[in-house]
Write a structure and sequence with these properties.
single chain, about 290 residues, alpha/beta, Rossmann fold, 8-stranded mixed beta sheet, about 15% strand
Length: about 290
């Protein structure tokens, strides 16, 4: 099982292919397999890396009492260093997008491109959005009593009643990812949810992100995600925004070919930028 030490944990990762590096960061309460269609498709022509974020999957938890998105972003930086990846394109979905944008703003010279899918950020929130984010913490107590899987199924049911059937997309694929991977402990669930719900207080200078960026969201995703993803594109200097028709919150699984094609477009954009500026990337890491 390939792992590498990042900060105070051993991070599980999968790596394949050869060429310019691309790193995938998954959403909350799943694991690296959320990006599997894109990981498999891009392994021809690129060095692709997908990993399990602290608290998730085969990386598992740690002794820290609290987590923050800043900590997750530092873990990502440590992973990129440990694997000796030269300025990868970083792709993040949902919570993974929060991690990716925080990394990109803090370390703008350490990546060459950015993909933010079905995510949200430090853009001005409506009152309803503040309530929704605060309500995340309310899932912790029920999770302690009945397990986070049941709590999330209830939340998906509620989202479908409020926002329509399409908001959760192909939720069965998400459940299949969880069935195949290690179970997250309730304590880790609580730390991850608290980190996510407090992300609005994380300082992220979106205008410091100096690389070609693609933001995208599912056509049927929740309204606040659609609005905030558009807001991110407006604040990041070199960003385009795309709607993934037919997709819900996990566009990478709902419409995998469309998302893969969009990422390929961003990669071509990055290559053209690197060619103009003479700052081409190389992947100097050896296979591990």
């Amino acid at each position: 099982m390939p792992t590498v030490v990042t900060d105070d944990i051993e991070t599980y990762y999968e790596r394949r292919g050869d060429g310019p590096p691309v790193v995938f960061v998954h959403g909350a309460i799943v694991d690296h397999a959320q990006w599997k269609p894109q990981f498999d498709a891009l392994a021809e022509g690129y060095t692709v890396v997908a990993y399990d974020v602290r608290g998730h999957g085969r990386t598992g938890g740690s002794d820290r009492g609290t987590y923050t998105v800043d900590l997750f972003a530092d873990d990502l930086a440590a992973l990129i260093d440990a694997l000796d990846l030269d300025r990868p394109v970083v792709c993040g979905l949902s919570m993974g997008g929060c991690i990716a944008m925080t990394f990109a703003a803090r370390y703008p010279d350490r990546l060459s491109g950015l993909v933010l899918a079905d995510t949200f950020g430090p853009v001005p929130l409506t009152l309803g959005e503040r309530v929704q984010r605060a309500a995340l913490r309310l899932t912790i107590l029920p999770a302690r009593l009945v397990g986070y899987e049941r709590v999330e199924r209830a939340m998906v049911w509620l989202q479908r009643r409020v926002s329509g059937e399409g908001v959760a997309g192909d939720y069965e694929r998400i459940e299949a990812i969880r069935d195949r991977g290690p179970t997250m402990s309730t304590a880790e669930f609580a730390k991850v949810i608290r980190a996510l719900s407090s992300f609005g207080r994380t300082r992220v200078d979106l205008r410091a992100i100096a690389v070609p960026t693609l933001t995208m969201y599912g056509e049927h995703d929740a309204g606040f995600v659609r609005r905030q993803t558009r807001g991110l594109a407006a604040l990041i200097p070199d960003a385009d925004c795309r709607v993934v028709l037919g997709a819900g919150h996990a566009a990478s699984l709902d419409e995998p070919e469309v998302v893969t094609a969009a990422i390929r477009g961003l990669l071509a954009r990055v290559a053209a930028t690197e060619s103009r500026t003479g700052t081409g990337t190389t992947d100097s890491a050896t296979s591990r």
